[in-house]
Amino acid sequence: PPPPPPPPAVRHFPSDDFDFGYTGQRHPKAAPALSRLGPSTPRQQAVVDAFKWAWKGYKEFAWGHDELKPVSRRAEKEWFGLGLTLVDALDTLYLMGLDKEFREAREWIQTSLNLDKNVLVNLFETTIRVLGGLISTFHLSGDPMFLEKARDLGDRLSHAFNPKSGIPFADVNLHTHQAKKPRWGPDSTTSEVTTIQLEFKELSRLTGNPAYGNKVTQVMEHIRGLPKKDGLVPIFVNANTGRFSGNTITFGARGDSYYEYLLKQWLQTGKTETTYKDQYVEAMDGMKKHLLKKSKPNDLVFIAELLNNRMSPKMDHLVCFMPGLLALGAVNGLHATEHMQMAKDLMATCYEMYHQTATGLSPEIVYFNMDDNKDEDLIIKPADAHNLLRPETVESLFIMYQLTKDTKYQDWGWEIFQAFERHCRISTGGYSSLKSVLHNPPSYRDKMESFFLGETLKYLFLLFGDGDSPVRLDEWVINTEAHPLPIHTP
Predict the structure, then answer these.
(1) Considering only Cβ atoms within 10 Å of each terminal Cβ, which end of the chain, N or C, has fewer?
(2) CA-CA distance, 190 to 344, in Å (whole number)?
């Protein structure tokens, strides 16, 4: 008989300089250890310093709570009571090499993160932030404790799925397992039910339990069979009937990440599940046909919305994930030349949404001028002028820099980072979202969203590295909350 195979080699952390609080062997299903951690450039060090300032505020005034009110120096009213900021920031801490802070966070998760909680949580937000954060941190650290927490959470979230339609309800109680439609209406959001697939499928792969992946695949199969407008989907779907509701089509809120996860599910499987690629290409063709427009007078390219089949020249800041998505599809062979040019054009528009305001920060929503007789391309309404410290533009800048190595994307990101430093940094720790980017100095909304640490600062840190990122885009697919998950080649 042939000799037995050699035992698997023990993978070590990339440097003995770090102590992340776990001394055992890497779990055999964890991804290979990254080759390097921590800052390698002055700009990266500046982002690490900013992260430590945000962490200082959270640790001193809101430790273990979901989010910080940095001006009031207290915790925001609990959303889910799952330590959202802490869990969302875990993999950022790891990538930045902040091992002392990571150890503190790890201990809190091991001893204080109670998932058997009589609380209603949003399936989508909990999946992308908490489940995604736990799985990503498991892969980076090799620490099995994070996988065990992820499995427990996945079991609880699985009760959200309606056995009749397969479409999940928006909310589920982690203790009673009762699932409900959202408080504001009868429908689930299309992007929410189609942006849990990367995480649940990865949980199936890691645990050997196919049930998680089967549930979310059933959702995608159901959505695939519904009528669409050239691949474009309305933003609501009813969990009881399983049918689309309403006729608003947008790449902004409630639509955005449906399109993102079409491409990323194809990439996650090593490009084997081609149904997702085909649906993505159809949707991008539909976007180009119906929504891709240019403003007056300077021809800024943007993605409009359709309201009752009528074009509205409105674009959420959320849509600024699209340059990165189009570029990622392009380098993987999907309409390579055309989509890369669209990515570059949209990236320039998203930069202008920052560059043209008094603060150098983007509003939440912009309208684009379509009138030949007006001089300004951007129209910012007072009700839309707030800034929530969102990540989408710097996410796309990171991807564009990695794929083109054009340093202007780093320079644009540095401008944006400096604007956050100037206007959002709070003297006692933390960063605050703003009421209006049109006023300089601005006034504070007094909230630090968990995604500022989980996404915005992580993408800025990765953007400012030299050479290839440790999170390589041909090895990792990044979920919609900036949590890297490994690509599985067949």
Answers:
(1) N
(2) 27
How far from 339 is each of 216, 269, 288, CA to CA, in Å? 28, 22, 10
DSSP 3-state of 74: strand
Q: Which residues are catalytic?
A: 125, 256, 364, 392
Which DSSP helix (H) or strand (E) runs through 301? strand 301-303
Q: Which two tokens stand for residue 205?
A: 């792969």
- The b/e string for 122-154 (b: 16+ C-beta within 10 A; e otherwise) is bbbbbbbbbbbbbbbbbbbbbbbbbbebbbebb
Q: Which amino acid is at 136?
A: S
User: What distance in Å separates the CA atoms of residue 226 and residue 235, rounded to the nearest whole number?
Assistant: 13
Parallel, antiparallel or unpaired: strands 244-245 and 248-249: unpaired
Rg (CA), the chain: 22
Contacts 24+ apart (CB under 8 A), 484-489: 484/91, 484/136, 484/139, 484/140, 485/132, 485/135, 485/136, 485/139, 485/198, 485/199, 485/202, 485/268, 486/31, 486/139, 486/202, 487/267, 487/268, 487/270, 488/205, 488/268, 488/269, 488/270, 489/270
Phi, psi of 305 (to 5 degrees): -120, 160
H or E segment at 462?
Answer: helix 457-463
Q: What is the dihedral of CA 120, 124, 128, 134, to 10 degrees?
A: 40
Q: Which residue has the tokens 């560059």?
A: 355
Q: 368 near 301, Cβ under 8 Å?
A: no
What is the residue whose two structure tokens read 């089509």? 249
For the purposes of burial, counting CB atoms within 10 Å of the CB of 1, is it exposed (0-12), middle (13-18) or buried (19 or more)? exposed
Q: 72: how many CB neighbours lie within 10 A of its CB?
A: 14
Tell me: the pLDDT tens digits for 43-100?
999 999 999 999 999 999 999 999 999 999 999 999 999 999 999 999 999 999 999 9
CA distance 474 to 442: 40
Q: Say if CB 394 and CB 459 are below 8 A apart.
A: yes
CB 128 within 8 A of CB 479: yes
Residue 314: its H or E element: strand 314-316
- The pTM of the full predicted model, rounded to 2 decimals, is 0.96
Strand locations in 120-239, DSSP E?
120-122, 171-173, 179-180, 188-189, 236-237
Q: Mention every residue, 6+ apart, whose C-beta is less than 8 A from residue 462.
A: 95, 398, 469, 470, 471
CA atoms within 13 A on the CB side of 49: 10
